[in-house]
Design a protein that fits this description.
Blueprint: E1 10-15, E2 27-34, E3 37-45, H1 50-66, H2 72-82, E4 89-97, E5 102-108, E6 112-116, E7 120-123, E8 140-143, E9 149-153, H3 174-185, E10 192-198
Antiparallel strand pairs: 1-10, 2-3, 3-4, 4-5, 5-8, 6-7, 6-9, 9-10
Pfam family, one: SpoIIE
Protein name: PPM-type phosphatase domain-containing protein
Organism: Thalassospira alkalitolerans
């Protein structure tokens, strides 16, 4: 089924380390619209600067090519092989199926993935670095209620924050949430990447 305008309710935001030029960011966010939902990827290449940015761009292009694969584990393992020999990255992958009200998730490394539905659920990644050494990925499936807010962010935003306690944040549109997280909560001395999807 085709996505309605309401279902395309998402935003992606990036901000580079304060000492890097605009656009030179080792964090990367990707949302690909599918017939029945969305493929979502948040990635944080180790370190920052031009080399990290180049790896992030390479990873994004690769993920766009293989985003139609059904298994997030297969996608993660393919990305792991693709990034071999680089400094590697932390990666979170999600597939949102609107027809089934279902969210699939696989993560490796310290990308924070939270589902606010309405209380917060933190999805737990496997240990490792994609492209270097990682634990065997695992795909998790959750029922996702309408009205839920899915947030993925790199460690450029502290993971311990309870976003539901920030006044008016969850009620805002996705772009406003992304902007506030980056500008109000993001660390200046790190790249910052964030994706927000309202279901």
């Amino acid at each position: 089924m085709a996505l309605t305008h309401e279902q395309r309710n998402y935003a992606v935001g990036l901000r580079p380390h304060m000492h890097e030029a605009e656009g030179v960011c080792g964090d990367m966010g990707l949302v690909v619209e599918l017939d029945d939902g969305l493929f979502i990827a948040q990635l944080d290449v180790l370190g920052h600067g031009p080399e990290a940015s180049d790896i992030a761009i390479r990873a994004k292009s690769f993920l766009e090519e293989i985003s139609q694969k059904d298994s997030l584990v297969d996608i993660m393992q393919a990305l792991h092989a693709h990034l071999k020999g680089t400094r590697g990255a932390a990666v979170a992958l999600c597939r949102l199926d609107y027809g089934k009200d279902e969210l699939k998730y696989a993560g490796v490394g310290n990308i924070t993935t939270k589902l606010h539905a309405p209380t917060g659920i933190t999805l737990v990644p496997r240990d490792g670095v994609v492209g270097y050494i990682m634990s065997t990925p695992r795909e998790e499936t959750l029922t996702i209620p309408r009205g839920a807010v899915l947030i993925l962010h790199s460690d450029g935003v502290p993971s311990h924050l309870d976003l539901s306690m920030i006044e008016g944040l969850m009620e805002s549109d996705p772009q406003t949430i992304v902007n506030r997280m980056i500008n109000e909560l993001g660390k200046k001395d790190d790249d910052v990447g964030c994706i927000v999807v309202k279901v």
